[in-house]
Amino acid sequence: MGKENSITLNDRERQLLALKEYVTSLAGNNPNGKIEFVGVNVEGTGADKTRHRLLKAHALPLLAATTVDEVVAAANSVQTSLNSLDIYQDVMLSIDSPCPGQLTALINLPSAKRFLAQTGTSFGNGEGSGYIRCTAKNHFGLGEIFTVDTSVGTRTKSATLFQASAPLAGVLPLRWRAELLAYGAEKSVDWASHREQVRGATIRITSPKHTFGLDYVLRSLYASKVRPSATVRSQAGHATKYSAFYNWNYDSRNNAFLPTSGALVKVCNEVAAGDYPYLKTCVDFVRGFRISEKISMSISGRCGGLVPLNGQSHISDRFFLGGPLDVRGFRISRLGRNDEGDAVGGDAVMAGGLSLYAPVPRVSSPNLRLHAFINGGSVRPYGQGVLQTFSNMLSTPPSIATGFGLLYAHPAARFELNLTFPLTSHAGEQSHKGLQFGVGLSFL
């Protein structure tokens, strides 16, 4: 369904309640009575261009429903899964009854644009970029989508992505997709005095909660100053990586950028081989709370570890902290070790934050909020085993900052302008006292 605000969710709940009342009336006002679907018809320009096998797989939940509650759940599931294909403009589903106890469904599938070219600018995750994107949808009737995307940005100097995806309905449960990606990019890593070129390919299977995949990437590091740090010098040149990964995602927030209820949990796991083999896992969470009618709060955290299997990790695989999107009050990626002026990240990370949100006086917009926060974190190199590494991290005070400012939750991104006050830091880390601006899709 995507991330919706609380008003939209309430509208959807009212629609489902109305549907339940309507289906109950069709069942002779007996909510526990048995119901049988005798037909599901599909119409619209999108139906004509989609293969019957795919449509049948998505309609099966309706045919299996035998009670009022099952019908309502199936109707919601079918509409959601068909909309998630992203090849139809707006899926409409209606239910009728030719005789008591029997139902028919009509699904209208207007086709979305089958070819789309877009240009624009985007801001997020600490940089701005301009892009050109071409998308082709459902030309073979399998629900497939082909995308070619090229962009230039302030930090990612150039990037090109080709992506092909198709639903696996009939093979795996609904909303699972197979995806193939080929990509190349060049980015400037200012905090570690180098630029990096990456070229790679990924094959993965995804669902709303799970992602399984294999990845190959060739990375090339080039020093961007005359005397780079020993870390950059030792890893300059080419390095290959082959990896298998599994990601799990749970999201019940009522709003992705300003949650007042629900939680987000992301778990990322990766096993890599190549020049710098490793095991890696990371957990992120966010929990939203409503304190009163006008004031809300969120808590967030991150914990992760990387175990290098040949004694040393690659700088591009490590964890970094600092900046307006995670630990505010510090410069981007400037927490943790410092090697001759270069921030080199770490193999273990722990971070957390607490934010309070309140309305701006005399401003009616629900998306503009006063924001106060306290956050902190630590990044450390791998020590003598995982337990010893995290034990050393817990025994050392984290770097902490607090502050306040304004937050705007735009539908496309979250904007923050904060006045930050670092409270504690460690040698070599670069704190930031004063105004700090951030734009992104996810914040700690």
TrEMBL record:
Which Gene3D superfamilies is this protein grouped with? membrane protein fhac: a member of the omp85/tpsb transporter family (2.40.160.50)
State the source organism's domain of life: Eukaryota
Q: Among the entry's GO cellular component annotations, what is one?
A: mitochondrial outer membrane
UniProt keywords, alphabetically: Membrane, Transmembrane, Transmembrane beta strand
Pfam families given in the database record:
Omp85
Q: Boundaries of each Bacterial surface antigen (D15) domain copy?
A: 138-443
Record's subcellular location = Mitochondrion outer membrane
| Chief location category | mitochondrion
Q: GO biological process: what's one of them?
A: protein insertion into mitochondrial outer membrane
The answer, when asked if Membrane is one of the entry's keywords, is yes
**Topology in the lipid bilayer:** Multi-pass membrane protein
Q: Give the record's family classification.
A: Belongs to the SAM50/omp85 family.
Name this protein carries in UniProt? Sorting and assembly machinery component 50 B
Q: Per the UniProt entry, what species is this protein from, by scientific name?
A: Wickerhamiella sorbophila
